Amino acid sequence: MRRFTDLLERFRRDERGAFLVIFAILAIVLIATSGAVVDFTYTQTARSRAQTALDAAALAMEDKVNEVNDGTTTKDAAEADVMTKAQQILDERLADNAITATVNSATIDTTAGTLDIRAQITVPTSFVQLVGIHSITAQLTSQATRGSKDIEVSVALDTTGSMAGQKILDLQNATDWLIDHVVQDVQTPTYSKMAIVPWSAAVNVGTYANEVRGTPIAGTAITAASWTNGSASIKAVTKANPGVVTTTAAHGFADGNIVYISGVKGMTELNGNTYMVKNPTSTTFQLYTTAGVKVNTSGYTTYSKNGTIQRCTLSTCEITITSNAHGLSAGDNVYITGVTGLSSPLNINGVQTVGAVTTNSFVWSGSFGPTETAYSSGGTAYCVKYGCTYYYFTNTSGTKTLYKANNCATE
């Protein structure tokens, strides 16, 4: 019996292994405390995702306020619909079967123009359940308020032939819906407006045209147009090979000049033709063709009187038009309008081809000055390329079209 008593006494005084017992008790608390960080982070992440989803639902469903105001649905039906769709968005965004998300309420205030959605999520714990906490619940609230800003919308509607049939009907229905949702019946304290622009080939942008397509290149003023730079009166013409012309005064022509003769009486075969001046003296010269062949006047009728010789500025007797800084290049087309004189074909046919150019002049290619009436005054020369005031192009039917830039912006 004494030995048993001594054994108990030794056991009472023995402290070996005591910490193990203490650690076993504290381990549960330590693990739960450390794991609480993990559980809290998991909960916060879930709460953040759920809040984002609820905010998205509130923004998406805010239009229900307008539907209640418009009378297209009742307040109860709208709130029930919001709850259903908000629940779907929550479940979709969380995508975690372990988390329970519940939309508790949806409240529409038509006076304030607000939609208030309340929900909660319950997140299971992994570590703190060791101390009896099996889940964490978080409350969520999101509110969307109908905006109150002035709205101005422009809608361009495609009404071209490609929209025939069902497409144009769908466009009409979509436009009706858009008008109902953008333009409100109550225009205070803010207003909403919509401009409808039918789009078939172009849209008239009014005073903003130059900003849309750039400022067209303007025309330049015409100040002169001429094909001749000297003249003389005829006194006599011989019958010879070549024929010799005598002028009433010093003519000033040089060897190789091209001249045009008109108004001769008697030897009328000379009229309306161009010739080359050869072997000139101060008052005479021999007649050659522009190709350099002698003109045999032996068989012509006898010269009687009169006659005018005009020297061509160019060997072709084409008209040179003066227009400072015209910007044209050889081979370009040019539209000429407003000229007094030179009326046949400049102001009728309009578009001509540009020949040789200088900075301030260009040749009307293909013209023949002697058959034109004299230039009097005025006129404007326009380039007709893309970007100019006028545009000259071949249309789909193969004919030429002259188009003047206007305030319409095209595709």
Short description:
By secondary structure, the chain is α+β, with helices and mostly antiparallel strands. The chain has helices at 2-13, 18-61, 64-70, 75-94, 166-182, 209-213, 343-349, and strands at 100-109, 114-124, 135-145, 151-158, 192-199, 202-204, 220-221, 224-226, 228-237, 244-247, 258-262, 273-278, 284-288, 308-312, 319-322, 333-337, 351-358, 361-365, 380-383, 390-394, 400-404, 408-410.
Helix share, percent: 25-40%
Cross-sheet strand order for the largest sheet: 7-19-16-17-18-15-8
| Radius of gyration of CA atoms, rounded to a whole number | 49 Å
Give the overall shape.
rod-shaped
Described by strand count, sense and barrel closure, the largest sheet is: 7 strands, antiparallel
- Total helix count? 7
| Relative strand content | 25-35%
Please trace the helix and strand order, writing H or E for each element: HHHHEEEEHEEHEEEEEEEEEEHEEEEEE
Class by SSE composition: alpha+beta
Mean pLDDT: 86
Number of strands: 22
- The residue ranges in which pLDDT falls below 50 over 5 or more consecutive positions are none
What separation lies between the terminal Cα atoms? 116 Å
3D structure, described in words:
The chain has 411 residues and is of the alpha+beta class. The protein is built from seven helices and 22 strands. A seven-stranded antiparallel beta sheet has the order 7-19-16-17-18-15-8, with helices on one face. The protein has a six-stranded antiparallel beta barrel with strand order 9-10-13-12-11-14. A hairpin with a 4-residue loop joins strand 1 and strand 2. Helix 2 (18-61) packs across helix 4 (75-94) and helix 3 (64-70) packs antiparallel against helix 4 (75-94). The radius of gyration is 49 Å and the shape is rod-shaped. 24% of the residues are buried. The model has no long low-confidence stretch (mean pLDDT 86).
